[in-house]
Structures are given as C-alpha cells and as structure tokens.
Amino acid sequence: MSATIVTPGKKLGNVQEYNVGPGTYKRNNYIYSSTLGEIYITNDPEKKLPCISVVKEKEQSIIPEVDSIVTGKIIRVNPKMATLVIMVVGNKPCKDDFQGIIRVQDVRATEKDKVQIYRSFRPGDIVRARVISLGDRHSYYLTTAENELGVIFAQSISGETMIPISWQQMMCPKTKVMEYRKCAKPN
User: Fold this and answer.
1) Sign of the alpha-carbon torsion through 18, 21, 23, 25
2) CA–CA distance from 175 to each of 7, 131, 154, 161 (Å)?
3) Element spanning 73, H or E
4) Binning pLDDT at 50, 70 and 90, where does residue 158 land?
5) Helix (H, G, I), strand (E, B) or coil at 162
6) For the chain, which terminal residue's Cβ has fewer other Cβ atoms within 10 angstroms, N or C?
7) CA distance 41 to 121
8) pLDDT, tens digit, for every residue of 45-97?
9) pLDDT of residue 2
10) Phi and psi at residue 62, to the nearest 5°
11) Are 69 and 86 within 8 A, CB to CB?
12) Burial per residue of 40-57, b for 16 or more beta-carbon CB atoms within 10 angstroms, e otherwise
C-alpha cells in the first residue's frame, strides 16, 4: 500500500488496523485522507498498531517572471544599486531564495539623473517592484518607476514603523524625524 497517491476523503482503513497519522482523520471508526499525497505506513515499537499518514508532495516554488510584481527586503545599498531578497511574487510567497537589483536608473520614471539610491532605499526596507528582466544568473533586474511601486514598509532608527508623507519622504511617528525614501502609493 506504500507510495499510493490518494485524494482528500479517500477511505484508507479502519481504526482497528491503523493509528491516525499526519494528513489523515478519523470518522465513524474509519481513517480518511485529509490531503492529496502519498500514503505512508510506519511501525512504531511503542504502539500496537502501525501509523498511517498521507504526505504531500513538495510544492513547486513560484518563480519571478518578466512583468510580475514582487515584494522583497533590501539587504544592500551602494551608490549604483540596491539589492533585495525577493520574498513574494504576486501574492504567493517564495519557497526559494531569489535576489533582485534595483539600479539607480530604474528607481523612478522622471529625473533619473537626480536619483540617489541612499535617498530611495535603506537596508531593511520592504519594497514592491516590477521585474523588468531576468538579469544575469545571480539577480533579477527590478524597477520601482511606477507610482504603486517603491518602499511599502520602513523602520526608523528608533524602531518605529514610518509613515509616508509624500512620494519621496517618510516620517517617524515617535521622533517626527523625516527620512527620504521612494514611497509606493498605497493600494
């Protein structure tokens, strides 16, 4: 019976034959599958009956594609670019680690020559961006050159969540100190 794929609700046996394990449930003295996956039967020397469980197959991780919206955390900033770890693609969390780069010319659509990365992003900021190309083998190239894209969460030096007050400034509600960021327009 091992390595058989079952769907939720499939009757696996009765409680006189098996103990209930992960991915299963008991109803009216029968054991049913609660998830899609493979059946595994394990013998536990401390228990009389073998344990039956259903284990999900490993889910595929979502991969960023050109034009997809991603959310990530800034990990490094230098004068030419900001590097971030992509955590979410669309509305789905990433199971694998992907790295993205926002180059100075991709921060905003206008006045590209006046952009300073240090006035747009800081390490620890959570940023919403769009994938513009697959980049090199290490990183995706991202842009924040739209109103809806940019910093969506930032913390001040005092540890408070900052509040956007314009498209390029955020303020600490505790200390009232203003810091420059490329802010995303709230949805």
Assistant:
1) positive
2) 56, 35, 14, 11
3) strand 69-78
4) confident
5) coil
6) C
7) 52
8) 777 888 899 887 666 668 889 999 999 999 999 999 999 999 999 888 887 78
9) 46
10) -75, 145
11) no
12) beeeeeeeeeebbbbeee
